[in-house]
Amino acid sequence: MFIDLLIxxxxxxxxxxxxxxxxxxxxxxxxxxxxxxxxSVDFFEACAGAIYEFNTTIIDSICDLVPAVKLQLACYExxxxxxxxxxxxxxxxxxxxxxxxxxxxxxxxxxxTAKAYSAAYLGKTNAGGxxxxxxxxxxxxxxxxxxxxxxxxxxxxxxxxxxxxxVLVKTSNKSSGQLQDVNTQDGRFIYEIIADYVNKxxxxxxxxxxYSSVGAVVGATYPEQAFELRKLMKSSxxxxxxxxxxxxTARDAAKSFNKDGLGAIVNSSRGIMCAYKSEKWRGIFxxxxxxxxxxxxxxxxxxxxxxxxxxxxxx
Amino acid sequence: MFIDLLIxxxxxxxxxxxxxxxxxxxxxxxxxxxxxxxxSVDFFEACAGAIYEFNTTIIDSICDLVPAVKLQLACYExxxxxxxxxxxxxxxxxxxxxxxxxxxxxxxxxxxTAKAYSAAYLGKTNAGGxxxxxxxxxxxxxxxxxxxxxxxxxxxxxxxxxxxxxVLVKTSNKSSGQLQDVNTQDGRFIYEIIADYVNKxxxxxxxxxxYSSVGAVVGATYPEQAFELRKLMKSSxxxxxxxxxxxxTARDAAKSFNKDGLGAIVNSSRGIMCAYKSEKWRGIFxxxxxxxxxxxxxxxxxxxxxxxxxxxxxx
Lengths: 315, 315
Known about the structure:
Helix content of chain A: 40-55%
Strand order of the largest sheet of chain A: 1-2-3-6-7-8-9-10
Largest sheet of chain A: 8 strands, parallel, barrel
Number of strands of chain A: 10
CATH superfamily of chain A: Aldolase class I
Number of domains of chain A: 1
Structural class of chain A: alpha/beta
Mean pLDDT of chain A: 96
Order of helices and strands of chain A: HEHHEHHEHEEEHEHHEHEHEHH
Radius of gyration of chain A: 19 Å
Oligomer: homodimer
CATH topology of chain A: TIM Barrel
């Protein structure tokens, strides 16, 4: 099942870092973009070609170091049908390199439609007795605004196909509190109510390490809430966005871990993809060595996170 | 701007019905599916071909009667890259027939990612000084769980490109209350808090008829809440799902209209697409006349809605 595979890969690589492949064309070295612009008359085909070369180089550079990659669907949808083809090819490439793949789509809808989304990402599409996997990722992020019957189809496919979901609980953005921090009549915040649902929804998907394939998204930018949510959702794996470019530190991200050193994966997207042009790595890497820059950043992030996790274990 | 165009088309056709093109392969007459199965060895290509023929026949049959179609993204994503190509082609076909197109994607993410979603559906994707429309629909449904900074990029594109959004407020599914009906400390339900945000977010997008291009989704399956929300969001157009197959009646849907006869559009998907095999039209239509069946259902729905709207006006 997803959560056991994830934990085994984290242990094998001694790294809870997830590399976010959320490419935008201006993240990509200009010599790659130029190459595909010259190759193709179609704008989106050129973009998709450049993104795929960029993605696969990053994957090659870090696949021995990270357990998983996270692909932000919006960044592929914005390049149209060719973008979606690039999304699909990147998933296959990453899986061939032994990585788990999380699609960050924050999908949500009523039951019958959630079933279609789940078929697209976790399950299979069937027609007339034939069944085919579509994008076939290992896990998908989902939005809980519609309640359980919009989540259930994903959970059914998690059971059937050994997949996972991460439910948005407390997101990393600055206005996440407008809804998520609303205080309810029973004294709980909305994010605490959703946390309780995550526990309930994940109860039948607990794996051999005591964690469930129904995880939660809790941003590194809210370390206090993360600390509290860690205690509330004891058996949920927490996907932590907001590290690096969004301002979250390793110490902030560590709030989402348990004392067993497990319980969370920390995503960095821009920090890894754009390492080659960051202040931090200036003078060491350049456009031509963007893969090595990504690798250096992943190692640095891994070590910082492991330091914080070690502190936590010894407390 | 979107909302003015929508109102003008509603007036022109005297019909607030939106036809939902949420195709699943088992909605489609078997002779069409067989034809494409025989034509193509690729499963998804065959599915996309059958869906496109089905969609365009439905559009041809009803384009003089309805102001808009609503395409459920999940139903295209489940057929992979070819499904997304079919989505794109259907959008173009519908626009060529003078219809407004709403993409039902319930998209949501943090600001920088919401910007990518908005580029994909409402705005343009740009790179190196070049700018291209991607799926280029007239309006998109969005999920408010992340608060304003996840909504703002869509609103910016609504202003810039004359587009619209519909924010989920009270959805039609049975468990929508798990989060949306939670009572908060100030005595309001969550859906009322979101309704207030919709008013605020839409305040700069009001058109010449007094309605805003920031609309709301309120299910026909919750007529009492719809009645209350209608009063709370005076200048929002309400997209009403849940009519027909989900149990909502014309009288239920009418709760979302104002006394001016405007203020809402009512979606029916299965009811229209599958009219040819419904109990209601049995013996009158069959597989070969699925387009005529859709047309008959649209006319019936239009008349039922207009009857209720007339009652409302005379109250």
